[in-house]
């Protein structure tokens, strides 16, 4: 019979599937083969998650870029609205000039 956790899909004693144990390499002495295997597994997991991470990074970058462009566009729009205030000031100056003419003409 094989040792428990040696690839058996179900542990016959408890009826549960074996779980991987978390190992702290700084506390436990590992053989160079175990360290190399851990590095291989970490590299495989990193490569497996790379496309998902890349997709998320692209979506995040596009979202931030869209936000920046929206703020930039709104700034241009609000600056273009300042002409409206300039026109109001011109009208106010003209009204003051007319009021001065009426006051001096009377």
TrEMBL record:
It holds the Pfam family Coa3_cc. Its main location: mitochondrion. Residues 45-91 form the Cytochrome c oxidase assembly factor 3 mitochondrial coiled-coil domain. It is a single-pass membrane protein. Keywords: Membrane, Mitochondrion, Mitochondrion inner membrane, Transmembrane, Transmembrane helix. GO terms for biological process: mitochondrial respiratory chain complex IV assembly; positive regulation of mitochondrial translation. InterPro entries: Coa3 (IPR041752), Coa3_CC (IPR018628). Residues 1-25 are annotated as: Disordered. GO terms for cellular component: mitochondrial inner membrane. Coiled coil: none annotated. Core component of the MITRAC (mitochondrial translation regulation assembly intermediate of cytochrome c oxidase complex) complex, that regulates cytochrome c oxidase assembly. MITRAC complexes regulate both translation of mitochondrial encoded components and assembly of nuclear-encoded components imported in mitochondrion. Required for efficient translation of MT-CO1 and mitochondrial respiratory chain complex IV assembly. PANTHER family: CYTOCHROME C OXIDASE ASSEMBLY FACTOR 3 HOMOLOG, MITOCHONDRIAL, CYTOCHROME C OXIDASE ASSEMBLY FACTOR 3, MITOCHONDRIAL. Belongs to the COA3 family. This is Cytochrome c oxidase assembly factor 3. It comes from Nannospalax galili.
């Amino acid at each position: 019979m094989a040792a428990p956790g040696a690839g058996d899909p179900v542990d016959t004693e408890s009826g549960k599937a074996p779980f991987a144990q978390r190992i702290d390499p700084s506390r436990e002495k590992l053989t160079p083969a175990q360290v190399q295997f851990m590095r291989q597994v970490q590299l495989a997991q990193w490569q497996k998650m790379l496309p998902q991470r890349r997709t998320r990074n692209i979506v995040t970058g596009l979202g931030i870029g869209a936000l920046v462009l929206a703020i930039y566009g709104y700034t241009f729009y609000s600056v273009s609205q300042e002409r409206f205030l300039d026109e109001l000031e011109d009208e106010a100056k003209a009204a003051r000039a007319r009021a001065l003419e009426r006051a001096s003409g009377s």
